[in-house]
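User: Show me a protein chain along with its predicted structure.
Assistant: Here is one chain, sequence first, then C-alpha cells.
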Amino acid sequence: MKRLPASLHSSSSSEKLVWLHIHSNPGEHSARSLEADLGGSFRTWSNALSGLVKAELVVVDTAPAGVHGGQYRVAPNL
C-alpha cells in the first residue's frame, strides 16, 4: 500500500481515509458513495473531499453534476 504523502500528515483523519479510498479505488465518488462505502456522515465526507481537492491532493477529472458524483483520482505528483 502506498504511504501517505507528507503533505497529508497534518490533515484530518477523514481526509486521510478518503485519500486512501480514492487511491485504492479511483473513479466516481461522491459524499453519498463515501458514506455508503466508509460509514460516517455525508457532511464529514463532503468536507474531506472538498478539503483534499482544495489542497490539490486529489484531482477532479469530471466535476460532480446533479445526483452524479465526480470522477476523482490521487494527484499525479504524489
